[in-house]
Amino acid sequence: MRTRSSWFWPWARRRRNVSWFSRKHDGPQPQTKRETPDGIWLKCPDCSEILYRKEVEQNQWVCVRCSHHFRISAADYVKLLVDPDSFTELFAGITSVDPLKFQDSARYADRIKNATAGGLREAVVTGRARLEGDELCLAVMEFGFMGGSMASAVGEKLARLADTSWEAEIPLVIVSASGGARMQEGILSLMQMAKTSVQLARLAEKRIPYISIMIHPTTGGVTASFASLGDVILAEPKALIGFAGPRVIEQTIKQELPPGFQRSEFLLEHGMVDRIVSRKEMRSTLASLLRFFKEARTSPWGS
């Protein structure tokens, strides 16, 4: 009878030089973790839902869960509103300068240079376009350019666009998104409030429609001038709209402010906004308003 040592140890000696870690595994091999490219996912700042970027883009940058409206560029808003390839930019050569040689933590000229480095030229894009075949003059403010602040160049572009609307007798539409007057230009920036308001008064005298669209945020001197002077004033849901900040107002009137008093829903209840329109419905709503004004002007009862 063979003992344990007589049959085990020869086998053990044969296996001694075989590494267990060099043996091939018949099961599934572990796969290298793939890196997720940047920009595929978005987090909604309102409901904190993680969203697929392409799905949000197809939904016109509106959250598919809570309908939060993401901020979009002026170029994207132009594409959203008007007929494809119908927009012709006007007054693109009017850009900001540094008339006061303003300097605080950084030179104003350097801030303009940094703002234009990303391809933007000014805080507003102006031009002529068509919406369902009807002509209109369109201006869309660009919040990505120094917070959409209203400088002398912004006021000049808007004034010239209003003058174009007056001469061609076609409606004017302005989409506002701004932090207010540009402080680096001082009184020159504040003068644009009066300049734009005068041009809009000329349109009213000639019965040329002006439609104002307020998106998030619309504040300061823009709210206190042309953004609030539309024949019809539309706003996106939950848009921040106001003149001064809540703390300044509370300190001035010595009263506690109601919650959400500077949101578009509150302003609709108190008559400052005519209608709140989702971004997905903005184009069709604007087209309907333009048709209404066109029929009213051509009707014998409209004179």
Description:
There is one protein chain. The protein has 303 residues and is an alpha/beta fold. The chain is 37% helix and 15% strand. It is built from ten helices and nine strands. A seven-stranded mixed β-sheet has the order 3-4-5-6-7-8-9, with helices on both faces. Helix 5 runs parallel beside helix 6 (186-205). The longest helix is centred in the middle third of the chain and has 20 residues, at 186-205. It is globular, with a radius of gyration of 30 Å. The N and C termini lie far apart (124 Å).
Tell me the strand percentage band: 15-25%
The biggest beta sheet is recorded as: 7 strands, mixed
Shape: globular
In round numbers, the mean pLDDT is: 89
Tally the helices: what do you get? 10
CA distance, first residue to last residue:
124 Å
**Gyration radius, rounded:** 30 Å
Total beta strand runs: 9
